[in-house]
Amino acid sequence: MERSLRRAGYDTVAGVDEAGRGPLAGPVVAAAVVLEGRVRIPGLQDSKRLPPREREEVAEAVRRHAVSWAVAQASVEEVDCLNVLHAARLAMRRAVEALSVKPSVVLVDGRFGLAVAVPQRALVGGDATVACIAAASVLAKVERDRIMVELDRVFPGYGFAQHKGYACPAHLEALRRLGPSPVHRRSFAPVRAVSGGLLGEL
């Protein structure tokens, strides 16, 4: 995909992806990456297929070798106000706009394009097949995990450092005991339910 686009005259190809649409807490984080055509990053693939330590190593290699990269986010408040899909697209747009090099085309992981003033293609499963999207997925995941570890220190007891905000049994139990924190997404059903005392019925 990237090689064919460069041959067609799109010399600066950016990939963009997000992390954190599913969790009950924390922001949605997105990254955009422009890779030089000849660069090969060992181990680069969809972030979901990489164990944490290897993901950190690949992320460092991406930051070191990318022509340009940027990370952005949409806040918990934006997730609750816009819904998580629109918040994810907002974070991805912010990441693209934060690149130090303006891309000539943007490859977006997923079904939907972005409100950016450059040509773009939306690719379902692009993080598994396109290098610059895979690189973006790794940076977004590593940054979001870092944020959740920090939030665990600010809001102890929920286990954010372990489950990163996903709705595992330990997280749901912490919600029952402690109630929602300021970084929980009130628009998500399990958080709404505990606020109304209904979580035990789910």
Task: Describe the structure concisely for a colleague.
The protein is an alpha/beta fold and 202 residues long. Helices cover 43% and strands 15% of the residues. Residues 198-202 have low confidence and may be disordered.
What does the model show?
This protein is α/β, with parallel strands linked by helices and 202 residues long. The chain has two domains: 2-153, 2-Layer Sandwich (Nucleotidyltransferase, domain 5); 156-197, no CATH class. Helix content is 43%, strand content 15%. It contains eight helices and five strands; from the N terminus they run αββαβααββαααα. The chain has a five-stranded mixed β-sheet with strand order 3-2-1-4-5. The protein is elongated and about 55 Å long. It starts with a helix and ends in a 7-residue tail after the last helix. Residues 198-202 have low confidence and may be disordered.
- Biggest sheet: strand arrangement: 3-2-1-4-5
- CATH architecture of the largest domain, please? 2-Layer Sandwich
Number of domains: 2
Task: Find the CATH topology of the largest domain.
Answer: Nucleotidyltransferase, domain 5
Biggest sheet record: 5 strands, mixed
Instruction: Report the order of strands and helices.
Output: HEEHEHHEEHHHH
What is the topological layout?
Blueprint: H1 2-7, E1 13-19, E2 28-34, H2 52-65, E3 68-74, H3 76-82, H4 84-97, E4 105-109, E5 120-123, H5 131-154, H6 160-163, H7 169-178, H8 189-195
Parallel strand pairs: 1-4, 4-5
Antiparallel strand pairs: 1-2, 2-3
Helix pairs in contact: 2-5, 3-4
